[in-house]
Structures are given as structure tokens and as C-alpha cells.
Write a structure and sequence with these properties.
The complex is a heterodimer. By secondary structure, chain A is mostly beta strands. Chain A is built from no helices and 11 strands. Chain B is globular. The chains are: A mainly beta, B mainly beta.
């Protein structure tokens, strides 16, 4: 079936560096994408979203890029901090009539002090 | 604003036993979701409610899993009988609407970690 996946399971970066987390999706009908952050023992927390009619969206220290041509999504975190250490999931909404999300497998971000 | 509440936080049972999880969504949120998250994987949607009606339960193993939201607020998810492969974190989420006119952010609870031995 359609799925959302990630290229790298673990990403280790130095504090202060920029982080880039990638995600590939296969459902070309998806029109909405979300990045979630999940810390140990907690539920996923919304970070940023983007609709398919956009190719870039910026938040506070985070930027999401969408390349529909190659069905690729990325999350950029500027000046990565120890508090950014978590597992990051991309999710897609492929159902225009609902709010159903399909999650990818996750990337663990480790920030070294 | 209080978040999504779930209980218990942890549960250990033997296979073939029964277990129930409870979720209280954010006040005013019409849509409620139950997800299963196996260790190392992303959450997988099990069932979605709009008020007290089921919107989608296509991925719910109905031979052993059941869920209800009788009054359109709290919800319970039950597993009977449990299998070893049911060991996972069960997440509840809620959102304002089902999203016909747009996509509404889902807010997740802390989850219930189930271990089946």
C-alpha cells in the first residue's frame, strides 16, 4: 500500500549545527504533510505542516521543504539544541475528506553537546 | 488548556488476557483517534471517531480489538484476548473536526505502554 518512509534512522549532530531530516512519500495524492517530534515517554508533538500547493514553509528555527516532483519532504532545524533530541516523524494526509494521517518510520535525532 | 489524558500509563498482562485503555480528549474536540505504535515504528491509525460515530476502523483487528465513544467524549479501547504482538504504545489523539474544509491539528496524549508476556 501507500507509505511514507525515511532515509536515515539516526542522525547525530553537534549542538549549534543545522539538522536536516528527510522523508520520502509514495502517495502522489497526498495534499498535506506534517512533521511531529516525539520525546521518550510522550506522544507526538506537532512541529510544522505544509500543504501540497506550497514548496516551503518556515516556523521558529524550523523549515519544511516539499518537493512534489520526487515526492520528498525534509525538515530543517537551525542551530540545533539538546532539547531537539527526539524521534521525528513525517506524516501525510492522503484523504481529502478526512483527517487521517499515515506516519513514516521515524528518525532519531541525537544532539551532541 | 488541558491536554489529552490517557490511563493507565503502563500495563503488563499475559497473553490471552483482556485489557482496556481510557482516553479523555481535549474539551470540545469532536474527533478522536486511537493509534498503535510498535517500538521503533511510527503510529498506525486503528480507529477514528467523529463525536460518537466511527469514521474509519479499517485497520482495527476486529476479532480482538474493540473501541467505543458512547457519549462522544471519553473513549475506551479494549483488547480481548491479547497476543504477544499487541505489545506497543497505544496513543489517543483528538482534533477539532474531521477536516472536510481543512486539516485540523491532532493533539496526542502520552500513550499507554502495553507489554504482553
Amino acid at each position: 500500500g501507500e507509505s511514507v518512509g525515511l532515509h536515515l534512522p539516526t542522525l547525530s549532530v553537534q549542538e549549534g549545527d543545522n539538522s536536516i531530516i528527510n522523508c520520502a512519500y509514495s502517495n502522489s495524492a497526498s495534499d498535506y504533510f506534517i512533521w511531529y517530534k516525539q520525546e521518550s515517554g510522550k506522544g507526538p508533538q506537532f512541529i510544522i505542516d505544509i500543504r501540497s500547493n506550497m514548496d516551503k514553509r518556515q516556523g521558529q528555527r524550523v523549515t519544511v521543504l516539499l518537493n512534489k516532483t520526487v515526492k520528498h519532504l525534509s525538515l530543517q532545524i537551525a542551530a540545533t539544541q539538546p532539547g531537539d533530541s527526539a524521534v521525528y516523524f513525517c506524516a501525510e494526509n492522503g484523504d481529502n475528506a478526512g483527517n487521517m494521517l499515515t506516519f513514516g518510520g521515524g528518525t532519531r535525532l541525537m544532539v551532541k553537546p | 488548556e488541558a491536554g489529552v489524558a490517557q490511563s493507565p500509563r503502563y500495563k503488563i498482562i499475559e497473553k490471552r488476557q483482556s485489557v482496556a485503555f481510557w482516553c479523555n480528549p481535549i474539551s470540545g474536540h469532536a474527533t478522536l483517534y486511537w493509534y498503535q505504535q510498535i517500538l521503533g515504528q511510527g503510529p498506525k491509525l486503528l480507529i477514528q471517531f467523529q463525536n460518537n460515530g466511527v469514521v474509519d476502523d479499517s485497520q482495527l483487528p476486529k476479532d480482538r480489538f474493540s473501541a467505543e465513544r458512547l457519549k462522544g467524549v471519553d473513549s475506551t479501547l479494549k483488547i480481548q484476548p491479547a497476543k504477544l504482538e499487541d505489545s506497543a504504545v497505544y496513543l489517543c489523539a483528538s482534533s477539532l473536526e474531521r477536516g472536510l474544509a481543512g486539516i485540523y491539528e491532532q493533539y496526542f496524549g502520552p500513550g499507554t505502554r502495553l507489554t504482553v508476556t
